[in-house]
Design brief:
about 575 residues; 20 helices; 10 strands
Length: about 575
């Protein structure tokens, strides 16, 4: 519990000063909430003493006490407002900072990280985990620190007036604290279990949403809901189990404070009867006994939530301290853009994909990579962009090992056009300008025209300001492909990687895309993964990959004169492209 409080305070960093000032305001707010009760009790005591003939009550005190209580109530809300102004904004500032930091961290880790960590886990940590920290972090710290700070001051005041009464209050607080430790231990133990249940639920929901097209096409709605239903039930059962385990200790914490409150009032009455306390002072103690522990009662919620917050902070640290690819990288400016593989080995987990791969791609030349599915073609491109790190060997761009670069300084030299294009849920303008946010309108339109997509964009309702659906779902495959080429053109990187950019488009769109690609690749270093002969034949160099090795290399003419994988591949493609429907 104390460890988590310290973690949250340390997490505040430069905002600690505002946090401490908030504690001061919280302290005075609590006192200004209690003082009107004390003034009222004191006034009632004076009236009783006057009625008994022991003293003469000054009638002016009624109006004076009323004014004092109104001022105290106003000050209570003023200081509470100031506390919220100083403290409540801290978590929003920090969580926004941390979410951006996580986004930056995720783009610097290997893509293998996302195979080891489910998307639901990451999403849950960024949303639910940080949301708990954002909404509850400062409040829980203020409840805990402010509650015990106020009690300490009240205890010292009581000790000066009546040591016996103050010891009763201290005993009640001490007993309640023991039960708070049980609450805290229970929360700390179960917070990871609860968080895992929430991550499983998030992952199952994402899986269900992504698989809906398949579910609908196969009519398996019931089967698809099984995992999500199980996750919902598990989350419910775990939350109920945690709640039932937390409730007894919380009730005992509150019971200890209530018993101490009654005992404190009883002791005050006894001291008043015996004459050790004056009647006004006795009444003030009795009235005060019902609110003396008001600052300690909510701490049970803090103790319960602090375990959840501690787990959320563990997730935050785990995401921010991922294994960065470019931890020792530097910003390197290249003066040439050739690519070289030197005895590269690479595998996903224990499955080796590339084995002792070596080749060189000269600057401003085109290289086509061909081979059967699963041979390692896409993996080669992923290693050039350092989406993954090699297991052995090295990859050089412009004479520098890719490990010498920061991710940003490496990727600013490379544009990629994927077979499966992803467009952001944003305007077409912002999707095209993604690689160059400061591009002018003229530059953007010029890139769109070269990519043969200007005409269909202008036919859309809002033109370049049309918002495309999530993933670009409101556009056809060919339209998305051309927008991705326009995006790559605008970036104007010296190295272009084309991963089967025309593999899944119709012949009409293929002609337009080929025209766009010709514009994109002029004067660049080109690496193309392709199956279509028209694309492969024009390459300056062809690399034939089979079972993770380069089995052939050369030009189209050279390789066609050799017996081997390439010639077999070309002949198979020619037979496939020349097939006709049989007639009877």
């Amino acid at each position: 519990m104390f460890k988590t409080i310290k973690r949250i305070i340390d997490w505040c960093g430069d905002f600690k000063k505002k946090l401490y000032i908030g504690f001061v305001f919280s302290f005075f707010s609590t006192w200004f909430a209690a003082l009107p009760i004390m003034v009222a009790a004191y006034t009632v005591g004076l009236l009783i003493e006057d009625a008994r003939g022991n003293t003469v009550f000054d009638r002016k005190w009624i109006w004076l006490s009323l004014v004092i209580m109104i001022v105290l109530v106003f000050l209570r809300f003023l200081f509470d407002y100031m506390r919220a102004k100083f403290q409540e904004t801290i978590s929003y500032e920090l969580v926004a900072r941390d979410r951006l930091a996580i986004g930056d961290a995720l783009k610097r880790v290997s893509l293998g990280y996302f195979q080891q960590v489910q998307t639901g886990n990451i999403l849950n940590s960024i949303t639910t985990g940080l949301h708990t920290l954002e909404n509850m972090g400062m409040r829980m710290v203020d409840n805990f620190v402010g509650g015990y700070l106020n009690f300490l001051v009240i205890f010292l005041c009581l000790f000066v007036i009546s040591p016996v009464v103050s010891l009763i209050a201290l005993l009640g607080a001490a007993v309640s604290f023991l039960f708070l430790l049980l609450v805290s231990n229970h929360s700390t133990k179960n917070a990871p279990v609860s968080a895992q249940a929430m991550r499983d639920l998030t992952g199952a929901t994402l899986e269900y949403a992504r698989g809906l097209p398949v579910v609908k096409s196969f009519g398996q709605g019931g089967a698809s809901m099984a995992a999500m239903s199980k996750a919902c039930r598990d989350c419910r059962d775990i939350c109920l189990k945690i709640e039932w385990g937390y409730t007894p200790a919380n009730c005992m914490h509150l019971l200890a404070l209530k018993i101490a409150s009654v005992a404190l009032g009883g002791a005050a009455c006894y001291l008043g009867v015996t004459g050790e306390l004056s009647l006004p002072m006795m009444l003030m103690f009795v009235f005060f006994s019902f609110g003396i522990f008001a600052g300690l009662e909510p701490i049970s919620d803090s103790a319960h939530v602090l375990g959840v917050i501690d787990n959320a902070m563990n997730q935050l640290v785990s995401l921010q301290e991922g294994s960065y690819l470019d931890l020792d990288g530097k910003d390197i400016a290249l003066d040439r853009f050739d690519v070289e593989f030197r005895h590269v080995d690479f595998g996903y987990d224990e499955r080796m994909v590339l084995k002792d791969v070596s080749f060189a791609i000269k600057e401003k030349t085109s290289t086509a990579i061909v081979g059967p599915s699963g041979s390692g073609k896409t993996t080669i491109c992923s290693l050039i962009t350092r989406f993954y790190d090699v297991n052995g060997g090295s990859i050089l761009i412009g004479g520098h090992d890719v490990k010498e670069f920061t991710c940003d300084s490496l990727l600013k030299n490379i544009s990629m056009v994927f077979q499966n294009v992803y467009l952001f849920h944003d305007t077409i303008r912002n999707n095209i300008c993604f690689g160059k946010p400061d591009a002018t309108k003229e530059e953007m339109v010029a890139a769109a025209k070269k990519a043969c997509c200007h005409d269909f964009i202008m036919a859309l309702p809002e033109g370049y300001d049309t918002v495309v659906g999530d993933g670009g779902g409101t556009l056809s495959g060919g339209e998305k492909q051309r927008i991705s080429i326009a995006r790559a053109m605008l970036k104007d990187a010296p190295i272009i990687i084309l991963d089967e950019a025309t593999a899944s488009v119709d012949p009409e769109n293929e002609h337009l895309i080929q025209t766009a690609i010709t514009e994109l690749t002029r004067g660049k270093t080109i690496i193309t993964i392709a199956h279509r002969l028209a694309t492969i034949e024009r390459a300056d160099q062809i690399l034939v990959v089979d079972d993770g090795r380069i089995v052939q290399r050369g030009t189209h003419q050279t390789l066609m004169q050799q017996k081997g994988r390439y010639r077999s591949f070309v002949e198979t493609r020619e037979r496939a492209e020349g097939w006709k429907l049989g007639t009877q």
